[in-house]
Amino acid sequence: MPDDIMDTARRTAQELDRRDPLAGYRDAFVIDDPELIYLDGNSLGRLPERTRSHLHDAIDRGWGRNLIRSWGEGWFDAPVRVGDAIAPLIGAAPGQVVVADSTSVNLFKLALAALEHQAPRTKIVSDEMNFPSDLYVLQGAARLRGVDTTLDLLQPASDGIHADEARLRGAIDEDTALVVLSHVTFKSGYMFDAAEVTDRAHEVGALILWDLSHSAGSALVELDAWGADLAVGCSYKYLNGGPGAPAFLYVRTDLQDELVSPIWGWFGQSSPFGFDLGYTPTEGIRRFLVGTPPVLSLLAIEEGVAQVHHAGMPAVRAKSKALTAYLMDLVDEVLTPLGFSVGTPRDPARRGSHVTLQHPDAYRMSRAMIDAGIVPDFREPDNIRLGVAPLYTTFLELCEAVERIRHIVEQRQHEGYGVDRAAIT
Ligand SMILES: *Cc1c(COP(=O)(O)O)cnc(C)c1O
User: Is residue 106 in contact with ligand 1, taking CB distance under 6 Å?
Assistant: First the structure.
């Protein structure tokens, strides 16, 4: 009987791939092993084919031939240029996004600047579904601000999958300085109603900071339309910027000159080559830069961002929803009877671009999946994330992945693995 289900699922997948308006984008990426089902684009996106020549040019011509002259031929402006290229993908007008540092460092800079701006308010609101690094950064920021600064961490709804937005609204009050949330949460893939939460923060005079790491390049983000104050996010996930690519940050225009970055460096100075002994922040978004950017990693982002831009965010989001819906339906039919459950919101308006499978033996299962040619990632305690990247994931790959997982369970292959965690999962 399951074979009938799989036959039908396969035909459906082939039909969906045939009708997919983004199908051609897969060829724009390096697919080194066509048998490998890569479902981890939410941790490290694939290499865009054109990034190879772009980087070769940066190395051979930019560094090799032009040497330091390249700073005046595109390197110095790159943080703003790449920021402005990312801006339309997150609903931001130009001049509000810059690329620098890591997401964690950008969060630190913006959180401290916001807390200072909001004094005497001292309360930060976030939630337990947020990415731990973000929570560490906020704990550190609170410590630096002083003893009366508090971090209120909301618990998720009782299913552990959805946020409790009613409780969140209640927690954002007149004492709240800053609300920090991941627009799409890293574990369940829950997506907040960002416009509504932003409104709530503003109703009581709080600032809001969205972490867009799991949404940039996969979900519709409308920072300007939401009225968001601040945002940060990764460029190496759905923007395919490459390992260690610097992150982006957003500060809405009219807030830029009111905020003071806590790290004063020459790239944020009004005249970096004046070598004044005193620090005067430059105008606009550049004031959130610190020091010399990692130029090669920064330039590596450009082609990945251009691909997403070319495909268009509405089409990207439509395919992301279709992929996750297809996958969840098939998991319900084939894997739920085998002991899995779906740990991701059912409502497409409330979920991002990954589907989390829960299984009591999730760690060993994820190890067996990797050996079966499926790359997911494992998140404690029992979550296997299957990330779908709209530009290169196919419906047929999802069908094939479910079939391989079913095979693992039926053959009990996962039982041959140890439960000791590898250093990197
Ligand atoms: C991936 C991710 C990060 C990564 O932070 P880095 O400082 O770039 O390592 C931060 N926040 C969230 C929500 C993420 O998903």
Answer: no
